[in-house]
Amino acid sequence: xxxxxxxxxxxxxxxxxxxxxxxxxxxxxxxxxxxxxxxxxxxxxxxxxxxxxxxxxxxxxxxxxxxxxxxxxxxxxxxxxxxxxxxxxxxxxxxxxxxxxxxxxxxxxxxxxxxxxxxxxxxxxxxxxxxxxxxxxxxxxxxxxxxxxxxxxxxxxxxxxxxxxxxxxxxxxxxxxxxxxxxxxxxxxxxxxxxxxxxxxxxxxxxxxxxxxxxxxxxxxxxxxxxxxxxxxxxxxxxxxxxxxxxxxxxxxxxxxxxxxxxxxxxxxxxxxxxxxxxxxxxxxxxxxxxxxxxxxxxxxxxxxxxxxxxxxxxxxxxxxxxxxxxxxxxx
Length: 332
Fold this sequence. Notes:
Residues 192-197 have low confidence and may be disordered. By secondary structure, this protein is an alpha/beta fold. 36% of the residues are buried. The chain has two domains: 2-190, de novo design (two linked rop proteins) (Up-down Bundle); 201-331, Glutaredoxin. The protein is 55% helix and 8% strand. The protein has 13 helices and nine strands. It has helices at 2-6, 9-38, 52-57, 69-85, 96-132, 137-155, 162-183, 185-192, 232-243, 255-264, 266-269, 286-292, 313-319, and strands at residues 63-64, 67-68, 201-202, 209-210, 247-250, 274-276, 299-302, 305-308, 330-331.
């Protein structure tokens, strides 16, 4: 008991604090994951010079192996919380040896995990500042959580071999950097070729042109440039939709909104009654979007009903009772 009272407070409280921070990080990243998977808009609450929080969440950097990056962050935070808190649940009097072994083992897991998370967060902060050019409080908050975990892990225990800590830190950091650069190698090469030309890909089954995926990152107020060429059918449908009161709600940074634009082509989409919902977009009408009850992008309003999600032009023609020629050129 005397020895326990003489311990610095940080040694006694480091694990509960680490656990609390990790749980907070898990809640934050779970929230971002839900927003990403549901396609809901993400508001920063502040003005940003770049794409904003929504643009960051929908950028190429926010998806890894087809899944939201925030999902992997959530799993990492949950693991850190488990490493910190599980040993506290073991009764020291009854299982003293087991508790001691588990504490020693989990400290090394905490060290390796916090180093990897801090290095990865540092890379993302670099991307946020140089590539996305945006201010995202959620991203910055997660980075601060990761840094706090690393500081508390290093200072929260009486490490006997500082040299081994340094060696472990260097190895884990190098591995993290190599893996990170490997994960984002395709993204970086796509951004480098963003201004290049794209060849049309035609589906041999129906002869329709498959629209290309967006490259690079959307920049306000327009986002990605529409590269497809409208045909007479696309223009006629766009005019019909506008004449019948149909509206399309979207945001300049939304990749699915861009897909919808590409399905129409540049000239046809200019005929669509498009309402920009992001304050940084061109001619934003956020109040109109909120009043309409728009919860995700894109959303179509046809005959007073809301239809969320990207719609192929045949479906829009059916919803709007368009009966003319439907030989549309493009497909998803």
